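Box S2. Input/output pair 1.
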Amino acid sequence: MLKAFKEFISMLKYLWLCICYNIRSNISNKKSFIIQTVAMFINNFVFLLFWEILFSNKGGSINGVGMADIMYLWSIPTIGYGIVFFCFGGVETLCKDIVDGNMDIYLTKPKNSLISELTSRSVLSAMGDLVFGAVIGFIAVHGNIFKFIWLLILALISAVILLSVIVIVRLFAFWLGDITNACHKYTHSLLITLTIYPEAMFPGVMKIIMYTAIPAMYVAHIPVSLMDTFNPLAFGIFIASAIVFPILMSVIYKRGLKRYESGNGVTRR
């Protein structure tokens, strides 16, 4: 037990070092970083403004859903999205690296090769999502620092689930080949899109899908429901999913490596 705990702490330290190195190397062009961050912030603000106008025209709420609910939806999963793609941008090229045999450089690392792969790149515009989500979240809790910390904790757990799901889908490239386009559509057109719309908008069948094939419930709707009312069962499901999905990701990755074909691309990073 003690050995497993030490290995876990060692992995967290390695993860932190990889993230720090990734961020430093990718924000060296400060002008580009700032422009992309501001552009994404404005893009998100425009969508939120649309909701504000819609609720204003509908008397303040639709089917019991108000602007406060939308602000939480545009805060927690948006922060999670920002964390995932800014800190683990290598997920974007994971399929191609698997198919082209470009994972050699990461497999030679003494530590976790998947962590090395995921932290090898950063999507700069994702910082705009992270900042936007934090600002909107702070406004949504009316500046209550304790509630804001709770929101950030939920967003961090949500990021763990989101990253795991996105990676799991891309790992099927070990068996199916280059599925980058399909994975991008799954992530952005389905999973991410479903996280920014109220749960009340979806019928029963769709909710089942959102708990299984497209697990948007775990990424957005469950943590949002925990903001104003703490439900032990919902929180338990949320924590359990944050444990199960990473374990599933790890198992699939290890199995997939058995099918991996080297591209003889060992270089120094």
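Box S3. Input/output pair 2.
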Amino acid sequence: MWEYPNIDPVALAIGPIQIHWYGIMYLLAFLGGWLYGNMRAKKIASWNAEMVSDLLFYVAMGVILGGRLGYILFYDLAAYLESPLLVFKVWQGGMSFHGGLLGVTLAMFLFARKTKQSLFQVADFVAPLIPIGLFTGRIGNFINGELWGKVTDSPLGMAVYDPVLQTVVHKYPTQLLEALLEGIVLFIILVIYARKPRAPGSVAGLFLVGYGSFRFLVEFWRMPDAQLGYLLWDWFTMGQLLSTPMILIGLAVMIWGAKQHKETMGKA
């Protein structure tokens, strides 16, 4: 079994100024998205480098505001009502992917209106960029020592100090599993799928199905948030409940897009 390296969440401290690894992971996410976005823009006639930079500004706002608000509403509203200043301590974690997705969806809608594109056109462009942020975000969770899996005797378990049990136990490093599945694997799937022309919404739909499925699966090994526990029938977690509509919506978008594309080709 592995031992958790207990990484200092503060990467650099200069007097009272502290730079946290969690924030650095977000910067790397946007940098990676910008670089790959520019690579994609060169292959799509309707996109250019300036549009990619503008889009990432919209997306960054959506991720930060939506992710924070989503976590507060979905996972720990009582704590933030009791201590409102916690809202600003983003370096401690507390970002919801599902909330961030809603924020990004609104950002894409506004960007689509500005550039006179359809929402699906923008979403299909953005979808392969998102796993980059998912990967770096999960690494940030690992460095922060948060979102651990269940206690296990499996060789995959990692020795980590549990403040509740006040002892060292072995837990699944589900942050790393999510970094692998939601980050690397999903990125490869979307890059390969997006190489060929697809029906509008298909790439975005595949992202929703892929992320939702991977997240739903990992939740079986991941510990639910302590303040929520298990929800539906004392079996499913909040992450699984929020991922289920993602899968269904993604499938619906892909089916609708394929049907529209077939009808368009039939009229041509």
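Caption for Box S3: The first strand starts at residue 2 and ends at 3. The chain has a mean pLDDT of 88.
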